[in-house]
Amino acid sequence: MRLTTTALSLSLSVAVAFGMTPSPAAASPIRIKDLVEFDGVRSNDLVGYGLVVGLNGTGDGLRNSPFTEEIMSNILERLGVNVTGEQFRPRNVAAVLVTASLPPFARAGSPIDVTVSAIGDAKSLLGGTLIMTPLNAADGDIYAVAQGTIIAGGATAQGAAASVTQGVPTAGVIPSGATVEREVAFDFAGLTSVRLALRTPDFTTAGRIEDAINREFGRAVAVMTDPGTVELDIGRTGMSSPAHVMGRIENVLVEPETRATVVVDQRSGTIVMGEDVRISRVAVSQGNLTLRVEEQPAVIQPNPFSQGESVVVPRSTASITNEPGIGLAEIPDGTSLSEVVAGLNALGVAPRDMIDILKSIKAAGALHAEFLVR
Which residues does residue 322 pair with via DSSP β-bridges, in sequence order? Predict the structure, then answer.
């Protein structure tokens, strides 16, 4: 058995390099419409239950998916085909759930994309065609109808004794596969005020949005109510149409404030950090420890013509080695995390070992940032 921890040595020269803290780069201005969601301007989710036909023997097994036979019978009955009491077991149909997103201000006749996913034991939806499927919203009303040929994102092949599947052939999309049949009732033109909801609530960013909008109109038309909301008074803008007001402010540039955050993914070894992450004075050291246990059992044979039995005698060898390192290194106060990571990269530290080091620095209270582990 061998247990090994990766060696890490921080030399004095690298620690000195950590002390060279550059000034943080200013954040780039971002358009307001990329920072906020406008009150009332949102999409609505749609869902429907339908049937896919035309599959090459990869559909549902009707014994395991009786709902497929039921919906197929209903469709044929509506088309004037009487199948009551008939026994049919086709393998070219599959029951699916159809999902879509109704965009804001979608008008009747507008096309939208839909996603089709099998809910039975179908093997693949490749080459299938979705039969006319109504799409309902949360209120139970039908807002769109979907139909068309499915574009699946996978492939499957099989032989007499083996099969191979790449991707997910049991789900696919139909670009512009649904047509909006009903519009969402919303009197946007009658609004007297509009709330801007920040995607990332922050007091500083909300205050900057308020100031930018007031400078745009030359008067106090916006007010920050909380870190996630800025309320805009349409009447004080001097413009009668809320649509014109939105078109005027959505391209106003604002410099957002970002929180100091470190996000690590242990599975892939990915580390993502912000520029504002800082580390207080802390010392880091990690050595290379190797534990080796070897078993070399020996067999002792009895003497000739004796009544003894062969015996296995265990022989074990255990050793612990600790490769010499440069020792404890100190990271100066105010060092940015990007400099620490750059120094660790220069030493050839693997990303997964780097994550363990960052965890330890955070546990010591020296990493001043929100630490998120995925």
Answer: 289
